[in-house]
Amino acid sequence: MRNLAGRPDLCSINTATLGYQTSISETIEAIARHGFGGLSPWRREVEAGDIKVIARQIRDAGLKVASYCRSTFIPATTQVQFRANVEGNKRAIRDAATLGAPCFVMVVGGLAEGSKDLTQARDQVVQATAELLATGREVGVRISLEPLHPVYAADRSCLNTTAQVLDICDRLEPKSGDAPWLGVCLDVYHIWWDPDLDRQITRAGRRIHCFHVCDWRLPSRDPLNDRAMMGDGVIDIPAIRGVVERAGYVGFVEVEIFSALDWWRRPVDEILTVCKERFASAC
Amino acid sequence: MRNLAGRPDLCSINTATLGYQTSISETIEAIARHGFGGLSPWRREVEAGDIKVIARQIRDAGLKVASYCRSTFIPATTQVQFRANVEGNKRAIRDAATLGAPCFVMVVGGLAEGSKDLTQARDQVVQATAELLATGREVGVRISLEPLHPVYAADRSCLNTTAQVLDICDRLEPKSGDAPWLGVCLDVYHIWWDPDLDRQITRAGRRIHCFHVCDWRLPSRDPLNDRAMMGDGVIDIPAIRGVVERAGYVGFVEVEIFSALDWWRRPVDEILTVCKERFASAC
Asked: Does B219 sit behind a cis peptide bond, omega within 30 degrees of 0 on the bond before it?
């Protein structure tokens, strides 16, 4: 297991952590100034600007793009809407390639509007992922399915466990070899509760594309935007990272904190300072 | 699959649904007056009175006790506290027998105070359950482990999936035959999101001791006390009930709605009237 002390270069900052207080240009500059190794920008930041210019600024700052966040929700009640969702994601995957992102993070969406059919939503996700995987291979971007906490099953993601995502990976890419194009984005916030977690992480092996950290605040005031800074909650982050790294993962440890009630109200430099401290001491 | 229309006798009312607005005596009378077949009282109601008197009133009202709610949380940081938790549950199981309850519902607790060790919490639950199962057999009360939604893993239950509970059942009672003393309490609110649900319900078979209904409100304003009336949320309740009944379940369908923001503010008669309607039309 890697020693993270004094190694912020192993840390990627997901830009959502900073609450979109600054322009993407200022965000890149701040993340580099604090010594981090990478970042994961969001489409709202990238699509609003010139992608090639943003990609160059990231490279010039000495940063790597860890991943590109995130997919348009997939489940739909009409074929027209479903196709629009898939095509929107194809465009985003091409943008990910332009940006130099090694992978595209898929938060797939929950139930389609007005639907109670989770099975149908999940079937649509599998169908769309097969198509997006082909696009990813064409342009050199890996597709990373993110299982989200079951609390989001209705409205944000019908993929809710690591096992479920790996079953889809095995089905769509049965012979993946050493460098699977389809894989999983593991976020401790979403998976820490899972009684089958260690076994599934080990099973994931090289399919682990990303590893995200934050913490589960107790009590949680809002399951969506009340995540805690690493060390301020109840998740045993080093234990989970140990399993992830024993499974072969050597990529960034990425900080992603949605915190409307706390961290997003603080200055960017303060957030990054504390992220760096806690990355070293609590992950 | 049973037709529930005109059959409120197949419905049990979990008294928490009524928000503890009335005494247990008035609650029993109201549930019987509306034609329901059973009820599940809570310890806060039963322990405050004379259990034999309450049991007689329930019988005289023509009602059955569906189950007795619920266990003291088990995980503890000291052996003294752990023993106290186990002994508290033994007393409650004996009370369940006095009450005439066929089963005791176990909501087992999350992490012990100040702990981040989910595995240890789960180990303590297995150890305690083995002991409580023996008490249950002695006094004729089945032990029903309730998997709670993963959103409660930290603070209310470290049992979070049906598979996890069934693994414990198989371990502690490997030869259960036709009438297992250890089983599962299935609540659609906790399990509806599970990608492995149908398979695990089928696996559960005669271990299904209870089946609870309510609905998942969208958006949820509070994961704990913002449950919806059946039909007002996104859970496909009839689909889940179909799987439960094909697995052999023939017991009560129990209504359990925690709703501080809505139903608990309404009069008991209104709550019960709507429960009866929705039991017939939305379950």
From this structure: yes
